[in-house]
Amino acid sequence: MSLRAAVQSLLLHDLKFALRSAVRTPMFSLLAVITLALGIGANAALFAVVKPVLLDPLPYAEQDRLVRIFAHNQEAGEDRWGVSAGMVDDLKRVQRSFSETAAFFSFPQEVVVGGAERPLVGAALLVEPALFDTLGVEPLMGRLRFMPEELPPSGPPLYMVLTYDAWQRYTGGDPNIVGKQIPVFERPRTVVGVLPRGFVGPAGEAELYMPLNLSVYLVNPVNARRSYMFNILGRLAPDVELGSAQAELDAISAAIQREHPEDVRGVRFNPVPLRTALVGDSRLPLLILLASALLVLVIACANLAGAMLSRALTRRKEFAVRTALGASRGKLVRQLLMESTVLALAGGLLGIVMSVAALHLVRELARTAVPHFATLSLDAGVVAAVMGLTLVAGIAVGLLPAFMVAGANPQRAMVQATRGATESRRSGSLRGMLVAAQIALCLGLLVSAGLLTRSLWSMADMPVGVEAGSVVTARTTLPLVRYGEAEQRVLFQDELTERVRGLPGISEAATMVFLPQAVQSSNTFEIDGRPWPEGQPEPFVLWNAVSDDYFNTLRVPLLQGRTFDTREGLESPRVIVISDAMARRYWPAGDAIGARIRIGPDFGSPRWEVIGVVGDVRNDPARLEAQPMTYMSHRQEAVAALYLAARTHGEPGAALSMIERELAAMDPALPFHEAAPLATTLAANLAPRRLPVILMMGFSGLALLLAAVGVYAMFATMAAARERELGIRVALGATRAAIARLVIGQGARWLGIGVVLGAVATVGAGYALRDLLFGVSSFDPVTLLAAAAVLVGAAVIALLAPVRKATSVDPMQVLRSE
Question: Which residues are 610's β-sheet partners?
Fold first, then answer.
């Protein structure tokens, strides 16, 4: 027989023995499988989220060489700011670190696709012709590079590339779409190519890509140097590393600031690996959650290892007899490891089944919390990784009983088994250490969940600055083909709000450019008579263009001066309303009313007079304080893309249906989307924060359950091991209270050690979570005490049954068994 056949025969024999052993103790085997399934299922569901975000290759050639170049803006406190057209041009002319570069707009723009009968809302991104060549992407159909004659010398671009999904959505998958035209904003645009399925764009969820002619933006000095609206995609040249590229970009940034000191202050290039840019803020929460899921599995393994150790102790006589009959220690160890591995594999298979249901729930939670390109599924890679983890867990669980058997003295084991001693001091200490480890890890997870929950609660509880309870909102966009004049857009907004205000159950209505959301537009500004010190960057403030009734509709209080009314107009002097945060920061003496400021990058732009100060609105729930904000009248800053807000006294769905019909009556070609109660929209701002909170709570709940089972098993085993001693104590007059104290005292030491170690571990947990916390310290005594109380409470409940059994020992029956 060959060596390979011999090994296979041994493994097959061990497998059969392990299966028979599992069948002989069905209850133990079932509990072991379920215990491991809980830990493995949690890891499988989470790995299905982590793998596509952090590990799966992006669909680009040599993806690790791709870099997205932002700007670091010192004044705005942002390290992923846009760059100006002039900075793009300067970089392209002198850089040597990148073999290819291409600029694109930092964010996609909302567009209306289709005709008057069925307008759809999509996202378009302006890109330089070399973008797809830089990415290393091949077309599914047509071509991806725009020709020089297709670059718009002025006005909107007339050519575009579609993503696979856009091709399906807008054309039904027309195989002859290349060369055909699709109306976008009611202008025909020619399709030159279709991207392959699964393409991942460099910025957001763009569906249509249109040519960007950078030279158009270089003509106007304001657009060229003071408007930061672009990013750059670069492919590192061969033998050039990111650190070297950063050094060159720093030198170019310094040269640009020396050459244009008035236009570029406190802004420098910031290159970021493309995957890092795409993943954004998702990386840290996912890594923390992955570590938490692994801790749950460690707790499950420790739990099962303790159970396997106890089971091995009850089998000492069996092992001693088998050793006496010629079985080698190696064979016993091998069979014990096979038993634990079989249980682990069964647990792994059940865990994968459980993770399918868990992933269904996680997928909905993760929709707004992970990058758009991630497809969450239990693919072959996830299953393979989980089964590998399962094998590791199986071996780890079997190591303790295997080592115990390998080091046991057969004669002593036979004597101890005959006398009824089932647990030595050494094995008791091992079980205690396992339980202490479970307690410590569980406390760390409970505290982490508590910190994240308190953070989310603080965000949700902190006033936004608006009363959203009975407000509904919806979005529409006016095509400039028919609404090209500012007067047309103003008249449309006035008529729309008047019509909506007259609907049954609606008392107020207003339009605005932005809802209170984290993503806002900002502008530089300067106060007349107070120029910023030379060399100091201009500050940035958020802005919004709103109709007259905006502040009344959203219940934003007026603190000083007045808000907008019919006195404002396109030809009237420019006026502006500012937030209280802006007034406090830049006019601490309270003299903001009447001040004149310049808004935007153009030094020669008209001045705006401050006519009012209103309450703060917290647009970004992740910020403790509201950001300074300016409001312009829609009569003086008429926009095409706008939100409508209406305060209703009826059912939100019915109100939105009435508003949609009213909009269609005014212009049936206009889109109506993002319709929802404002409270729902504001709650969605917290959606990325909910995923780590909910998953961490789930993990900590599993850990608490497993730790409670571990505590129960430890006390039950200790009570059973000392049953003879306890019977004798009762026979000699010991009270039940004394017996309870004896049993509890033996295990309480390990519980205390676990709590102390867990309290120390929470310091590290809080440090790891510090960037995810809001309104709560990374070391919070209240959260620690609450978590410890929950854990001790669960432990007390778990030990009730073992203590009750220990205090019910019948001394006569114990002595009779002797």
Answer: 576
DSSP state of 424: -
User: How many CB atoms are located within 10 Å of the residue 179 CB?
Assistant: 9
How confident is the model at residue 94, as a pLDDT?
92
pLDDT for 421 equals 46
pLDDT tens digit sequence for 148-177: 999 988 778 999 999 999 999 999 999 999
* Model pLDDT, residue 76: 63
For the segment 672-698, the average pLDDT, to the nearest whole number, is 85
As given in the structure block, the two tokens for residue 443 are 């406390």
- 477: helix, coil or strand? strand
Tell me what the pLDDT averaged over the chain comes to. 83
Query: Which residues are CB-neighbours of 570 under 8 A, at least 6 positions away?
Result: 486, 487, 490, 635, 636, 638
Contacts 24+ apart (CB under 8 A), 649-655: 649/470, 649/505, 649/506, 649/507, 650/504, 650/505, 652/472, 652/676, 652/677, 654/505, 655/472, 655/503, 655/505, 655/506
Q: Which amino acid is at 239?
A: D
Tokens of 309: 């150790």
pLDDT at residue 47, as a whole number: 87
- H helices, E strands: number in the chain: 25, 23
| Helices 781-806 and 425-461: angle between axes, nearest 10 degrees | 140
* Contact (Cβ atoms closer than 8 angstroms) between residue 389 and residue 693: no
Angstrom distance (rounded) from CA 784 to CA 764: 13
Nearest alpha carbon to residue 426 among 410, 407, 441, 399: 407
Q: Per-residue pLDDT averaged across 420-435, rounded? A: 64
Q: How far is CA 731 from CA 736, 741, 812, in A?
A: 11, 17, 8
Residues 6+ apart with CB under 8 A from 407: none
Q: Which two tokens stand for residue 638?
A: 């008429």
Band of the pLDDT at 37, cuts 50, 70, 90?
confident
d(CA 17, CA 31): 19
Q: How many CB atoms lie within 10 A of CB 360?
A: 11
Residue 658 pLDDT: 95
| Pairing mode, strands 159-162 and 208-211 | antiparallel
Q: What is the pTM of this model?
A: 0.82
Burial class of 149 by CB neighbour count within 10 A (0 to 12, 13 to 18, 19+): exposed
What distance in Å separates the CA atoms of residue 675 and residue 69, rounded to the nearest whole number? Answer: 35
3-state secondary structure 458-516: HHHHCCCCCCCCCEEEEEEECCCCCCCCHHHHHHHHHHHHHHHHCCCCEEEEEEECCCC
The per-residue pLDDT for 721 is: 61
φ, ψ (nearest 5 deg) of residue 764? -65, -40
> Which residues does residue 510 pair with via DSSP β-bridges, in sequence order?
645
* 259 in Cβ contact with 233 (< 8 Å): no
For 399, other C-beta atoms within 10 Å of its C-beta total: 16
Token readout for 559 is 């603190």
With beta carbons less than 8 A apart as the criterion, state whether 695 and 362 touch: yes
618-662 residue pLDDT tens? 888 777 788 899 999 999 998 888 999 999 988 999 999 999 999
Work out the number of other CB atoms within 10 angstroms of the CB of residue 538: 18
Cα dist from 10 to 3, 17, 346, 379, 611, whole Å: 11, 11, 21, 33, 89
pLDDT the model gives residue 81: 84
b/e sequence 322-354, b meaning 16+ C-beta within 10 Å: bbeeeeeeebbbbbbbbbbbbbbbbbbbbbbeb
- Separation of first and last alpha carbons in the chain: 51
If one counts every other C-beta atom within 10 angstroms of the C-beta of residue 128, the result is 24
Q: Tell me how far apart the alpha carbons of residues 84 and 90 are, in angstroms, rounded to a whole number.
A: 10
Residue 129, pLDDT score: 94
Contact, 450 vs 765, CB < 8 A? no
Within 8 A by CB and 6+ apart from 581, the residues are 616, 625, 626, 627, 628, 629
Beta pairing class for 596-599 and 607-614: antiparallel
Task: Over range 67-71, report the average pLDDT.
Answer: 93
How far apart (Å, rounded) are the C-alpha atoms in residues 558 and 718?
A: 70
Q: What gap in Å lies between CA 811 and CA 680, rounded to an integer?
A: 66
